[in-house]
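[scheduler] slot 2 assigned
[scheduler] job type: sequence-to-structure, two independent chains
[scheduler] chain ordering preserved from manifest
[runner] begin chain α
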Amino acid sequence: MPSAYYAPLDQPQTSSDDDEEEDIERHQQQQQNKRHQRRPKGAAPSIPFLKAHPHSPMAHLRGSSGVVGGRRRCLLPLLGALLFLIAFCYFTLGVDTRLALGLGGGGGASDDSDDGMHSLDGILSRALNETLHLCSEGLLDRRLYVQDKPMEQYGHLPIIYFVTPTYPRREQIPELTRLAHTLLHVPRLHWLVANDQEGCNMFMDMMLKKFGIPYTHLASPMPSNFRKAKPAPRGVANRRAALQWLRQRNLTNGILYFGDDDNTYDLRLFSEIRQTQRVSMFPVGFIADYGVSGPVVRKGKVVAFLDSWLAGRRWPVDMAGFAVNLEYMAQFPYVNMPYKPGFEEDRFLRSIGLRLDHIEPRGNNCTEILVWHTQTKNKKAAVVRLESEYLDGRSNLGALFRSLKIMGVASASDTEGPKALISKNGKAAAHSTILS
């Protein structure tokens, strides 16, 4: 099934000057030419096709029979047709199709990227044709006031499409609850929650609905062939599903932002990214060895990047460190985010044709931290030994543990786990003493 895509805008994209990135197609062709020219050290030089030296052993075959000449006359048209077909495919097929066929063109590789990276992209990248499982959706903003102002005063603002990939775990519901209470202070926001789960989570449906924020709940499981990978490309299927949702609705007015459920957000961030014309960037705190990742700015322009893990990435930024204007993104019909851990941001930004002079520095010229990559230590859901006969209506424990089990936080068992202690006056008492 072909991917849905935006219609291109009327105004063509202009080229930049000194800091302009090389044209994607020309650069990929140069990379292919370099690979053809490489040969092992000490190897004999390549011999032009069917071109024999007059004194070589092949020369005697150029007799009156004209066998070689005849073969050449037969092969040259075939070779020409093959080269034409390759060129036609390269320059007419889309980026994702070329990647799938191993023809390169994956969005403008950087100068220091290696051939293995290109081939790996071709294996791991997929066209945006995700199957969407829409669990629930609330398009009406039921909040009457945001930051002490009535909602109608914010009607002129562009909508922020806040994409949150999430997955079932003990910390999922509390982290989504904490994030929701941040988003409650943000006007004109649509929350796209994509859950890495085969089916829909009814508890999450009810939770998202009660906040009153416009939302969409998607079930977007990671493809099974990636689940055993080390590391697994976590969150990619979720974000791809959200991109597909935006495309199917042909949304070209608003701001796209990828916001994880375990991050911490300064409310000023939302005011900053709402001004994005193409792509805005800003530093993210608590990232790897440097404790920060973000752009280097001189004279109001982004000139480089600070990040402790480069890996040949042209755009070494964190997923929470940029926002994209949907009208700008609509110019690129093959927006993609590959299943390649660590390179999701880089390949996504390449797929939207980002150039250095397009980037708008935010956060007071990238001197302030407006988003923190705070992470919660993941632990397995707790199991406590509490006899099922005491989980009836005689106390709150039955309803409490049913709720905890739905959220994936804890569960009660008759035989497993440490025995649940119930105390009174500072002393542990038998379950039967308290609950019977």
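[runner] end chain α
[runner] begin chain β
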Amino acid sequence: MVTVAGGGRPHSWLSTLDPELRQHIQNCPCPCNHMGYGNVLDYQIPHCAHEYPIRETSFNVPQYYNDVRDYYHPYDYHGSIESCSCSTSSDTSKTTFKGPWCICIIICVLIATLTAGLGLPLALGPHIPPQTSEQRLNVIKKLLKEQPLIDGHNDLPWNLRKFVHNKLFNLNLSSISDREPWATSKWSHTDIPKLRAGLLGAQFWSAYVPCKAQHLDAVQVTLEQIDVIKRLVEFNSNHFSLVRSTREIRSVHKEGRIASLIGVEGGHALGNSLAVLRTFYSLGARYLTITHSCDTPWATGTNTKTRDGLSEFGKSVIKEMNRLGMIIDLSHTSMTTAKAALNISRAPVIFSHSSAFSLCNSSRNVPDDVLKLIAHNGGVVMVNFYTYHVTCNETATIQDVIKHINHIRTVAGIEHVGIGAGYDGINMTPSGLEDVSKYPYLLAELLADPNWTEKDVVSLAGLNLLRVFEGVEEVRDKWKNEQVLPVEDEIPPMHNPCSSLYS
């Protein structure tokens, strides 16, 4: 028996080797691996010389293994070819091609020749992108398994209120497409099988309240919508998990479930109270859409004629969202409000479901000058699929959506575009993007364009939004360390029949 240099149990397997090979291994001073049997005299050497690597590797020769089966084999595809040539004065084998150790030399030369003749041209040749739709879809499936696809806006919670009055006990989200009114509604695009087919990694569910609730029961209705989102996630915990941070998004995605986030749509939901904003955040809301289609007393929306932007209280809302770590969403705001928010915010912002104004002049879309401000801010515009925001009419195609994505990429940069389809809150969708199952087809179409790399596709799909969210969390943590206190500003009380004299 021979004991491994540096300590280690005797290797009884050496006695089973050909005597000539055994003597060679015992006496050869080189660090060769000898066809997987190693060299017991040289395991303390960190690695062998690699003369003709098949591919780059960080492999080091293991030290003091206890079983020959654990040794790295020099012809394993995942490793590199060991330098096998050595000869010593103590070798009893003659310089002929009879010894087993010499076979190693022959095999090394053959593989090295093949590597030089075939591997090098392959290594130096151009990257060949996937050619067929099926190949591209397979690539997308692989990419979305590694990195999450994140959609910025889905209005399923409002349909739950409209269709079943937020009563979930008898609702099977896996089969609602076969039930009325879901089956025939033009506003319904979401169920669990479709979400799974769409490879969705994370979804912002919208806690939406109509503008007509402003100054009435907007706060209560928002709380009820937050509640139904949380119960929906809990009832379908095999598929969903409520998350509040980027770390949790990544963790839940690795588990194979859909990370579910809450976004409050419309600043009128605050009831002009920063305390309500803080309460929404504590309940899990991670973005607030500053306005909807109506003005609030402190901000102007898209469908209004005023151009006042943000009041002093509105600026306090932005600052408090920065302090909390809540994402500022500028979809539905007037561009005056958007510019004011961009000027005040110390954290990146988003447009959770908007497209490019240059291609469709809807007030919901983002003009080029604001796209440039978004790039400067570090934010992201998440492209909407509503046909009236894509082509400004009732019909659109997947290629029309791609035009918006490419335009935002051209003006703002690849780091500043994402996806915010708006499913279940729209009644007309582009051909090829009919429901939440179609995301992979959009990404596969982009991959057919040589200007789009796999890295670009995963940036669009979700990494850009994660970067923004991380930026928001970073500002929150910095302000916390600096002991920035909650904002206590108030708006002058509004006297109406639904307000208390003690407000």
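[runner] end chain β
[qc] chain β: Residues 12-124 form one domain.
[scheduler] slot 2 released
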